[in-house]
Amino acid sequence: MEISQIIANTLVRGAELSLLAIGLTMIFDILKFANFAHPDYAVLGAFFAYVCNRIFGLNLVLSILIAAFATGCVGILIDKAIFKRLRVMGAKPVTLMIASMGTAIAMRNLMRLIWTSHTKSYAIPIKKPLVILGARITPLQIAIIFSGLLSMVAFHLLLHRTTFGKALRAISDNSELASACAIDSEKMIRWMWFLASAYAVLGGAMIAMEHLLYPRLGFDIIIPVFCAAILGGIGNPYGAMLGALTLALAENVMLALDFSFVVNLGGLFNVNTLQISTGYKPAISFVILIIVLLFKPTGILRKK
Q1: CB pairs under 8 A, 24+ apart, for 275-283?
Q2: Whole-angstrom distance, CA of residue 119 vs CA of residue 205
């Protein structure tokens, strides 16, 4: 595989994972627990977009925006029903984490009940791949890269140029001081859930567009999403972006490498090519996650 193809695949994969990792790391930064249901919010939103696109015949972009809004509202409702009650009770982060696991299982099975386990796809016309600098890339993948880039720029502006973003950063730095400065923490947390869920939908819809949509998709991408967040520095949104790109690059490099030289043992055996199957891509993420936790648990960009 050429370097240009590796870079193209990395940009596509990084755009998808970064939007999921941003929401995950935001929730951890503010509420101090790992939300294992986060990838399932993304899949739920992707199914909402599927309904708007396939059943109601709406434009795909409009369908994703409607789905992001609807899933953001679902995120707020679930927080009110479960996580806010646990916060009021003074539950520890591990309790919130276990509750998120139960939420993920419930959402996954609810989606399977409504939409069955069969794979779904959006109404996207098949177009011939373009060849750019030696890399084969489809118009859909180009759209995914630019959508991810624009979403990250919008997130940066939201975080630094709006009252909500400044309040959210204040709560992240010192929640008690933020409350003393008349910042309504619970209100900001509600908006944080909305934003995290909406961004998850963008990432989930991108993955579903490039591959297929099915209820178990959230479980299948949970390791890469957590790996991207931890690799970049859990609690740091910019670290989540960098971690997603780094993980995507590592995955594509490992898939492109030919390991026949290891098996041949200097010519003792005759193996022409030996490459890792794409089906083992989650295993690459898992190995990277273990290495990061062992040697640099703070990640690339440690939160200050």
Answers
A1: 281/224, 281/251, 281/255, 282/220, 282/223, 282/224
A2: 14
| Contact yes or no for 175/185 (Cβ under 8 A) | yes
First to last CA, the chain: 39
Q: How far is it, in rounded angstroms, from Cα 298 to Cα 230?
A: 7
Longest dimension (CA), the chain: 72
Alpha-carbon gap, residue 162 to 207, rounded angstroms: 29
pLDDT in tens, 46-76: 999 999 999 999 999 999 999 999 999 999 9
**Cα angle: 65, vertex 23, 207; to 5 degrees:** 60
CA–CA gap between residue 131 and residue 255 (Å, rounded): 20
Query: SS3 of 260, please?
Result: helix
pTM of model > 0.85: yes
